[in-house]
Design goal:
The complex is a heterodimer of chains A (about 300) and B (about 100).
Chain A: H1 2-17, H2 30-55, H3 64-91, H4 95-104, H5 120-140, H6 147-175, H7 179-198, H8 210-213, H9 221-237, E1 249-250, E2 257-258, H10 264-274, H11 278-299
Antiparallel strand pairs in A: 1-2
Helix pairs in contact in A: 2-3, 3-6, 4-11, 5-6, 5-7, 5-9
Chain B: E1 2-8, E2 16-22, H1 26-37, E3 45-50, H2 77-101
Antiparallel strand pairs in B: 1-2, 1-3
């Protein structure tokens, strides 16, 4: 019996490593299912928590057009959460359980959503660069071995591309504005550079990353970070903005970006709920969950 | 109830599975489908189907390996080569015959 399970697991591993995709009803090893749930749930949590820093700026948006665009972006992110939690539900964890674990701090959400926003400059930098970092990870998920997740990612990526352009447009408006506006973007970039360098995770080699081994992710963390640096550092520098890392440079021979080693312990602390805005954000989510609980109890009796 | 959504991106294209959602009834399912899958005009039509109404069939045994019904049942390479050689040969013979007769 044990040998059968082992050979079946091995067969499954070979199948996904050869590019095979799995559907909801297919047999899958327990470890694969558990890793899928944890990873996809964290993605869903991040979409939901990611709207809180932006929500603060709806009423403070500088123009009506920006207010509408920001509201549409927030609506998209909550929609992504809905789609992604649905994928988790089909894998065996109910949405209510995901929300319980999120507000109790048992499950995690992305590091960038544990930080406060201090000015409209942050809103531009988040929409442009945080979403750019996110779309690199999400595009790699289009090839995820779990097909229902990959399909949902198609829609997510399509919507994120508008967010990035809106963010870049916001940043461009400010860097071509008054010196004070330029300074708001520059200060925001200084604040967000470390979280951005943390975003794709520790540079664990892809072959040792279980998420890659199971082909849930199709690229290693460092590959994603290099792709981000390659795509966006030139776009940042051409605006005359300064990046707070004196070691940052591209080795022209190898094509590899060099940078100051980020503080990985700090990343670990942030994602385990010790970031500067973690407690406040979770408290807000807890509050809104209690306040709107009646809606789900009314609409979905089985969810009550 | 869980509803599955199939979306069509452009007229004439196939409907492709997009995802699913919970809804208490068809009326809400209609509203949610519009909201989740078409609010940016990314779809021209949607099929919204209660999951329990979908029958999945995925075992299609082919015990007798009925290859004669498929393209991969025919390997014509060798035969084609032979036929071409034969045709060339007969043409040459005919040409030789007509040349001799002139």
């Amino acid at each position: 019996m044990e040998a059968t399970l082992q050979s079946r697991t091995q067969e499954f591993l070979e199948f996904v490593q050869a590019g095979g995709q799995v559907e909801t009803g297919d047999w899958m090893p327990d470890e694969y299912r558990a890793r899928l749930i944890k990873f996809i749930e964290m993605h869903g949590n991040s979409e939901l928590m990611g709207v809180l820093p932006e929500r603060d700026w709806i009423l403070r948006a500088p123009t009506l057009q920006r207010k509408l665009a920001l509201t549409a972006k927030i609506q998209d992110e909550v929609g992504h959460c809905q789609l992604i939690y649905r994928v988790v539900e089909d894998l065996g964890k109910r949405r209510e359980a995901c929300l319980d674990d999120l507000v109790s701090g048992k499950s995690k959400f992305h590091n960038v959503f544990h930080y406060p926003t201090q000015s409209w400059g942050d809103v531009g930098v988040i929409a442009w660069l945080v979403d750019a970092a996110a779309i690199i990870s999400q595009k790699a998920l289009l090839k995820c071995s779990y097909a229902p997740y990959a399909r949902v990612m198609k829609k997510v990526c399509w919507e994120e591309s508008f967010h990035i352009l809106h963010g870049r447009d916001t940043v461009l408006a400010m860097v071509t504005g008054t010196p004070q506006q330029f300074a708001l973007v520059q200060e925001a970039l200084l604040r967000w550079w470390e979280p951005l360098m943390h975003f794709h995770g520790t540079p664990i080699p892809a072959a040792e990353d279980p998420m890659y081994v199971w082909r849930i992710k199709s690229q290693g963390n460092e590959d994603a970070r290099q792709q981000f640096l390659d795509g966006y550092v030139p776009q940042i520098l051409e605006l005359g903005l300064e990046i707070p890392d004196p070691k940052l440079r591209k080795d022209e021979e190898t094509g590899v970006w060099e940078y100051t080693e980020p503080d990985w312990e700090k990343l670990m602390a942030v994602v385990t709920g010790h970031g500067p805005a973690s407690a406040e954000r979770l408290a807000f989510r807890r509050l809104s969950r209690a306040e709107v609980g009646w809606v789900s109890r009314t609409m979905l009796p089985e969810a009550a | 109830m869980i509803f599955e959504v199939f979306r069509q991106e452009r007229k004439g294209q196939a409907f492709v599975h997009g995802g699913s959602f919970h809804a208490p009834n068809r009326e809400f399912a209609d509203a949610y489908a519009r909201e989740f899958y078409a609010r940016r005009q990314e779809s021209v039509a949607l099929w919204v189907v209660p999951r329990e109404e979908i029958t999945t069939i995925e075992e299609f045994p082919d015990e007798f390996d009925l290859k004669y019904r498929r393209v991969d049942g025919y390997s014509i390479k060798a035969r084609l080569k032979e036929a071409r050689a034969a045709a060339e040969n007969s043409t040459r013979l005919r040409d030789a015959g007509s040349a001799g007769g002139a």
